[in-house]
Write a structure and sequence with these properties.
Length: 123
């Protein structure tokens, strides 16, 4: 259900972007973008402003409702945040070494001993 709602949410977002981009600024009509001189013939007798503003309002309301529903569903699923996991890792105590106070021999990244050091098996 979450996947289906996410797809619908994405579809509504694309529609919202397209509708907002179709709207023109003050003084310009949408019909001029399509090569016509008058916008009343493109979207009806009242013009493009009323139709596009209603479509924008409907898409925005649907987008907000789907956002809230997705948020509620994700909280119920018990998903965790990366930030919460990092805080738990930082507050966890470090594992204790087997011998407290014993010096640890330096090793190279490959696990080999440093030059001039006796390997642990030869001791």
């Amino acid at each position: 259900m979450v996947i289906a709602l996410s797809v619908i949410h994405l579809f509504i977002a694309v529609i919202l972007v397209v509708v907002v981009l179709l709207q023109s600024g003050k003084g310009a009509d949408i019909g001029a973008a399509f090569g016509g001189g008058s916008s009343q013939t493109v979207f009806g007798g009242r013009g493009a402003a009323t139709f596009l503003s209603k479509l924008t309002l409907a898409a925005a309301v649907l987008f907000m409702i789907s956002s809230v529903i997705l948020t509620i569903l994700s909280e119920r699923r018990g998903s965790s945040s990366v930030i919460t996991e990092e805080r738990v890792k930082q507050t966890a105590p470090a594992p204790a070494s087997p011998q407290a106070g014993a010096p640890v021999p330096p090793t190279s990244p490959a696990g080999q001993t440093s030059p001039g050091q006796v390997p642990p098996a030869a001791k």
